[in-house]
Structure to design on (494 residues):
């Protein structure tokens, strides 16, 4: 362990996690965590991209010594404790970020913070790099598909332990600022290596952090200082523009503020951004509208499965005013022929998913119209992936997927591989319970053209087609003649 501790100290110095003056302090913290009584330095000459090879050695030692049990969750909790021994204090990170922002600009500041998040193993890059990614050339342009396997599955013993954890209500949710330094448990990830940067959006206090699961490049989260519910209004849109003015190399958006069409955490006001170009941004224009009251603003209806209006202008005031008008009009819009009803017994159904950029002096916003109504025929949501597609995609279509990047469940990795073997006659689908949900799809696929050499790509393409159908289901104005006509009339009525 003396050798491994020496390696970790060397790694921390190389990555700027600690300085020379921190070495003895960090060593003693590591000795405490690893239950060791003495230490002798080894001279280390190596450069590592991540600390994972060192952590694996330390975890194996800790399991063998009975310090922890050999389970995924306990290892994750413990290696985060280990990395905390070489972490800069939260105020150091904030000061470094602020100094870089002031001296070198937003790019340098976020580069520092993102690299820190990877070096500290807060972003488990060796896991996220294993996520499956492929693209599909659809009628709407290129669609991106990911199968997220970066979250390891718990074994039955861990699940049992997680059920026995008594909730303390602290932190209130996974986004609260109180997660910084939180030790975690069998239900919640350890966050000793978690850091957040205070920022102001329209003079309101928020924090910038990175997502530990990075669904795309520099996937960041901007969270309200207070634990207050999500809300989509003109103030929200103004805050989004405030963010991209400060970080013009990033996009940012918000999940809708209603269940079914919103994200997984509606209880805490937050946004998601990053350094990435999403498929929606390359969508073709279906129709352009000129509004006399807003001569400087381009208004475009996109050829996109979810009904989306793009506004762009060098005049922020115009974009904000028009966005507010569209939002308010949509909140009160109904079209019974298209199954769009704005309220049921004063319960609102209409909202939007907004996405913004600030590019070449122009304020750009994508307003995606959403409706969360359910019915007897569609109990999961009229404008939600329909049940016939749930074998591939059952979860909400949130912000990231609205933009054309699918986040599909980890189970599909093994299920699709097995399905390929069944299609080739190497396995019997009736002998695999996990494939029961895919049976109707399997019968359809059997009648299509594939062979042993292309079955993997064939299944990927067919999976992507189902995701596109799921997006089609979520569109409030379908892209047929009736839906397109109603969509155009809606915008022109403004």
């Amino acid at each position: 362990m003396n050798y491994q501790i020496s390696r970790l100290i060397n790694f921390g110095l190389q990555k700027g996690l600690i300085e020379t003056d921190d070495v003895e302090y960090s060593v003693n913290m590591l000795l405490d965590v690893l239950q060791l009584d003495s230490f002798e330095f080894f001279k280390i000459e190596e450069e590592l991209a991540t600390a994972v090879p060192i952590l694996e050695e330390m975890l194996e030692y800790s399991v063998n010594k009975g310090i922890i049990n050999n389970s995924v969750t306990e290892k994750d909790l413990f290696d985060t404790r280990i990395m905390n021994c070489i972490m800069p204090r939260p105020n150091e990170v904030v000061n470094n970020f602020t100094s870089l922002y002031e001296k070198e600009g937003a790019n340098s500041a976020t580069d520092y913070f993102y690299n820190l998040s990877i070096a500290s193993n807060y972003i488990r890059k060796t896991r996220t790099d294993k996520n499956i990614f492929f693209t599909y050339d659809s009628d709407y342009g290129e669609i991106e598909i990911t199968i997220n396997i970066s979250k390891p599955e718990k074994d039955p013993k861990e699940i049992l332990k997680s059920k026995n954890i008594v909730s303390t209500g602290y932190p209130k949710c996974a986004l609260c600022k109180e997660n910084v330094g939180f030790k975690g448990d069998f239900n919640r990830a350890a966050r000793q290596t978690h850091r957040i940067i205070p920022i102001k959006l329209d003079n309101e206090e928020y924090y910038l952090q990175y997502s530990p699961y990075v669904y795309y490049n520099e996937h960041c989260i901007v969270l309200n200082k207070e634990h207050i519910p999500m809300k989509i209004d003109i103030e929200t849109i103004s805050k989004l523009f405030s963010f991209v003015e400060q970080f013009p190399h990033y996009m940012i958006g918000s999940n809708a503020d209603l269940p079914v069409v919103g994200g997984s955490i509606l209880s805490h006001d937050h946004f998601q951004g990053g350094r990435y170009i999403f498929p929606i941004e390359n969508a073709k224009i279906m129709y352009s509208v000129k509004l006399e009251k807003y001569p400087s603003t381009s208004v475009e209806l996109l050829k996109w499965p979810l009904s989306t209006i793009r506004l762009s202008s060098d005049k922020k005031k115009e974009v904000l005013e028009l966005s507010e008008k569209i939002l308010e009009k949509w909140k009160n819009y109904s079209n019974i022929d298209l199954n769009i009803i704005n309220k049921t017994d004063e319960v609102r159904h209409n909202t939007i998913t907004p996405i913004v950029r600030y590019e070449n002096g122009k304020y750009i916003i994508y307003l995606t119209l959403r409706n969360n109504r359910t019915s007897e025929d569609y109990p999961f949501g009229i404008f939600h992936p329909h049940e016939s597609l749930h074998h591939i995609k059952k979860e909400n279509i949130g912000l990231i997927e609205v933009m054309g990047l699918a986040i599909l469940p980890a189970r599909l990795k093994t299920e699709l591989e097995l399905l390929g073997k069944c299609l080739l006659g190497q396995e019997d689908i009736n002998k695999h319970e996990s494939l029961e949900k895919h049976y109707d799809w399997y019968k359809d696929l059997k009648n299509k053209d594939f062979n042993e050499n292309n079955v993997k790509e064939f299944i990927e393409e067919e999976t992507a087609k189902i995701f596109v159908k799921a997006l089609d289901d979520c569109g409030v104005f379908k892209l047929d003649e009736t839906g397109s006509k109603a969509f155009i009339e809606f915008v022109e009525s403004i």
Observations:
- The chain has 15 helices and 15 strands.
- The CA atoms of residues 297 and 313 lie 5 Å apart.
- The longest helix spans residues 455-474.
- The radius of gyration is 25 Å.
